[in-house]
UniProtKB/TrEMBL annotation:
Range of residues in the leader sequence: 1-23
Biological classification of the source: Bacteria, Pseudomonadati, Bacteroidota, Cytophagia, Cytophagales
InterPro entries: DUF1579
Pfam family, one: DUF1579
Protein name: DUF1579 domain-containing protein
Amino acid sequence: MKKVMLTLLAAVLLAAAAPATRAQEQTSASLTSEEAHKLLGRLSGNWLVSHYAWQPDRNAYYQSSGKATVSPAHQGSFLHEQTYVRQPDGSQKRQECFLGYSAAKERFELIQADKRNGNTVLLVGQWHPEFHSITLTHPDGLKRGGPNNVEYVYVFLPEGMLLKLVRTLDEEGNYRIQSQDYYAPQHTASF
């Protein structure tokens, strides 16, 4: 009797775990190189940017606007993203990075120069179809404090728009959004 009960319990647990296992497999399924480049192609173009950056001294977000250009680079293997946004003091902040897909490693890679300390940052990540997003973190994972405490999330929104989040972990391990940029396609007027 005990053996029958254990067998039934095991069968119920396996049946309950099957949907979660399938969902995990579907979530972590890698893209083909062609699918990844098609996805990255949706980022190419000229964009109008609404920028929101967290200002801890004011305990509020600062809102500004700017422009971004995303164009193919290195014979089309990477995208070159250049963003210019106005700062609270009136100056313009320029950010620049390269985003691509490594078919050999089956991951997205973002390379950005950090002007504060002269280092180059490498973030790696995956496509998450259930959230229509690419999430990129340090290769060693997201950790509180230090250089591994940043994560970029590119969220593909309806109408060809894009949301780029930069977030970190706070002392309790919760996400804190440092900045969010809404990208809208810059259309040229025509007659």
